[in-house]
Write a structure and sequence with these properties.
The structure holds 4 protein chains of 4 kinds.
Chain A (H helix, E strand, L loop, with lengths): L3 E12 L2 E12 L2 E6 L6 H9 L6 E6 L2 E2 H4 L1 H6 E4 L11 H11 L6 H10 L15 H15 L3 E5 L7 H16 L3 E5 L10 E6 L10
Parallel strand pairs in A: 3-8, 3-9, 6-7, 7-8
Antiparallel strand pairs in A: 1-2, 1-4, 4-5
Chain B lengths: L2 H5 L1 H33 L13 H28 L2 H33 L7 H22 L3 H34 L13 H33 L4 H9 L1
Chain D lengths: L5 H6 L4 H47 L1
Classes of the chains: A alpha/beta, B mainly alpha, C mainly alpha, D mainly alpha.
Chain lengths: ~220, ~240, ~220, ~60
């Protein structure tokens, strides 16, 4: 993996006193997708949090462009976008305001027309001025996805991105991931659902020791 | 064989096991010697009569309460800086004993205050700071108790110890300042006009005894913590089977 | 750097404006605690004037603690805290911004209410002016040190009570210098020394607390 | 030697309550800490041993 932007070296992760995995190595280059698979409690989410730098590995390190993310820190965060179980959407704000503040947090200039266009593309045109409190879970997830698209990050780290999305949204999401990858982006994702990603370089990583049947 | 060998929990477990009897016996013998000085060698104070003998407990306990806090802060800082597991365990092992000494210092302070100043409690700078120190100890122990995750607990407790350590001198100074304003002249506990050499010697011996006791107790506690945390490792399993 | 700080401020202030009930609770708590004392100790004006500064200061610390439990908790709950920590700016600035926002939302209204309560406690105008000054210097300390406690207790069971236990001892210097300043001016010994010490403690908190709170936040999010 | 008799020693010139109250509580505190420590140590070891036996019994069943 000479051109791997994101690489993991002898990574070990423990939750409490239980060792979830150790000696993990992989690399991910431009245009590649890594699907993290494994049963419940095997450490999928823990691995993703290690990759973001939120959690600290028991051993080993995660590198971005060949340097430990502990060292590059904030520069790495500028090129990475994480979507976890929680959406990070404020209930008291409407979708557009949510995107405005997300942009502010990441030091980007806010482009209202682009934000609105993204939200409309994700099928939220009718709730642009409603507080997110009244939106359904799936709609709030779409707001979070809009923030992900606007972030313009190279690396997406997605924890169960399809949860709560309907069939149309899943198809949309597949399209978004494919576009992102063909544009030279990178994706690390966990999912329980099947993804239709023809023509995409998919790496699979099984976390934990319990083998599960192939999902796709 | 160097210092780093003992930084590994497995080796430290064995080393601590060897050291505990020495420190326990040392603490016992020193305490006997210290008590002998306190009650049989030290003369009656012409001002405070026999009541002053409380200082042989009070002063070493107060010293220890502050010193243990500083040692905890030191181990916490080492742990945060170098990510050494053992230093966090040491910090945890010291806290209950530190709280005990703080309590003893307060209790004996009250029992000394009653005959000397006619009040169980005065808002003197030292006593008040000691009370706040007890609050800090209780807070740290409560924080550890509330956090289930070991790693988070270690780091959170150490951060709290550190900000407390920065704050303790400020608290002491502020209470002293407040005290002088409110009472005109502050009552100085240590202003014994004729601090005989033998009294100082008694306090020192008692303080060293308290040191040995603290080390012995902390080592016992740290061994338990090590065993609990390392129970998945082969050496810990072997120890459990053989004991 | 300051753009990020402003973004955090604007965000927290907007959110607070959307939920007025939340921050009014803390202000009412302040008023109620202070009003309980005359009922407890009796209405003699001399006595009330003597205990007034201390009571108002204690009430201010308690009111700030009440609101501090939610400093990070709401953002933690909906996941936006993680997004903010993962922003390309240092976490210290995030914590600093949120502390300043907390002060603007909860500290500044206390400054507006305090004179009214001062009159209830029969404080002289001079004493009320000094009380205002001491609260102006002292309430930022409450927000700054409180952010450490809020970060340490993030997501814990019974976090609110624990926060109180951890942070109240650290507030003591602010309480002593703050209430002491008002006492000083009432006793005729002047308030300058108290106020400068309070200011020094504020600067020290400003320099140290955000770093420790940022470290605590990263530990709690792990 | 300071003391004429044992009763003098216990009396402490009228300050017996304070002096012995101090030393007594200290001794009690130390004693309680040591006892609690011993008990907690034994408890931990017993608990860990049982957990270990349980783990090995599970392994035995699995085979």
């Amino acid at each position: 993996m000479p051109d791997a932007l994101l690489s993991v070296h002898d990574l070990a992760c423990a939750r409490g006193e239980r060792l979830l995995f150790k000696g993990m190595n992989f690399g991910l280059g431009k245009g590649e997708l890594l699907l993290v698979q494994g049963g419940n409690g095997q450490g999928k989410t823990s691995l993703l949090r290690l990759l973001t730098g939120l959690a600290r590995p028991e051993e080993g390190e995660v590198r971005w462009r060949g340097e430990s993310i502990r060292r590059v820190g904030e520069a790495y965060h500028g090129e990475m976008c994480y979507l976890g179980h929680a959406n990070g959407v404020k209930d008291d704000l409407n979708p557009v305001e949510n995107l405005r503040f997300a942009d502010g947090m990441h030091g980007r200039a806010f482009d209202q027309t682009r934000a609105v266009a993204t939200l409309e593309r994700l099928g939220l045109s009718r709730c642009l001025d409603l507080p997110c409190r009244v939106l359904s879970f799936g709609q709030r997830r779409r707001v979070a996805l809009a923030a992900l698209l606007l972030a313009g990050a190279t690396l997406w780290i997605l924890d169960e991105p399809l949860t709560g999305l309907d069939v149309h949204a899943v198809v949309l999401m597949e399209g978004l991931i494919r576009n992102h990858l063909t544009a030279g982006g990178m994706v690390v994702a966990t999912t329980h659902q099947a993804l239709n990603l023809d023509g995409v370089a998919v790496q699979r990583l099984l976390v934990g020791n319990v083998a599960i049947p192939a999902l796709m | 064989m160097n210092l780093y060998t003992y930084a590994s929990p497995a080796n430290f477990y064995v080393l601590a096991g060897k050291l505990i009897p020495w420190f326990s016996w040392g603490a016992g013998l020193l305490a006997v010697w210290g008590l002998y000085i306190s009650f049989f060698l030290a003369p009656t104070d012409f001002q405070q009569s026999e009541a002053y003998r409380i200082i042989f407990i009070h002063v070493p306990a107060a010293w220890m309460s502050m010193f243990i806090y500083l040692v905890m802060a030191f181990w916490g800082a080492i742990g945060l800086a170098f990510n050494t597991r053992l230093s966090f365990m040491m910090a945890r092992a010291l806290a209950p004993t530190g709280a005990l000494f703080t309590f003893i210092a307060l209790w004996t302070g009250a029992l000394w205050g009653k005959p000397m100043w006619g009040a169980w409690w005065v808002w003197d700078a030292r006593l008040t700071s000691e009370l706040i120190l007890l609050f800090l100890y209780v807070g740290i122990i409560a924080l550890w108790a509330a956090i289930d995750d070991v790693r988070r607990g270690d780091r959170a407790g150490s951060l709290l110890t550190l900000i407390g350590a920065i704050n303790v001198p400020i608290i002491y100074f502020s209470v002293k300042w407040w005290n002088t304003l409110h009472q005109g002249s502050s009552i100085n506990l240590m202003k014994a006009p004729s601090m005989a050499a033998i009294m100082l010697q008694g306090m020192l011996v008692m303080a060293i005894a308290a040191w040995f006791y603290t080390i012995a107790v902390a080592l016992v506690r740290v061994r338990r913590i090590i065993l609990e945390r390392e129970r998945q490792t082969d050496w810990a399993k072997a120890i459990l089977e053989n004991e | 750097m300051h753009r990020f700080l402003l973004a955090v401020l604007r965000r927290d202030l907007t959110l607070a404006a959307r939920r007025r009930g939340d921050w009014l609770i803390a202000q009412f708590f302040f008023v109620m605690v202070a009003s309980l004392f005359p009922l407890g100790v009796g209405p003699e004006p001399e006595m009330l004037a003597r205990i007034g500064p201390g009571v108002l200061w204690v009430a201010a610390t308690l009111a700030s603690l009440l609101s501090l439990t939610r400093l990070f908790a709401d953002d933690h709950h909906d996941g936006s805290l993680e997004h903010m920590v993962l922003s390309p700016e240092p976490t210290v600035l995030l914590v600093l911004g949120k502390s300043i926002a907390h002060w603007l939302i909860y500290g500044v209204p206390l400054l507006l209410i305090a004179p009214v309560l001062g009159i209830q406690f029969h404080l002289s105008w001079e004493a009320i002016m000094v009380l205002e000054l001491s609260l102006l210097l002292g309430t930022p300390i409450l927000s700054l040190l409180g952010s450490v406690g809020a970060a340490l207790t993030l997501g814990l069971r019974g976090g609110g009570v624990l926060l109180t236990l951890l942070i109240l001892p650290l507030y003591i210097p602010a309480l002593i210098f703050g209430a002491g300043a008002v006492d000083g001016v009432m006793a005729g010994t002047g308030a300058e020394a108290h106020l400068s010490l309070l200011g020094a403690f504020m600067v020290l908190s400003l320099m140290i607390a955000p770093w420790i709170a940022a470290a605590a936040l990263r530990v709690s999010l792990e | 030697m300071e003391w004429a008799s044992w009763s003098d020693f216990w009396h402490m010139a009228g300050y017996g309550l304070y002096v012995w109250g101090s030393f007594g509580v200290t001794a009690a505190g130390v004693l309680i800490e040591v006892i609690l420590l011993k008990r907690a140590g034994a408890d931990t070891r017993r608990r860990l041993k049982r957990m270990q036996q349980w783990a090995t019994s599970l392994e035995g069943e699995g085979q």
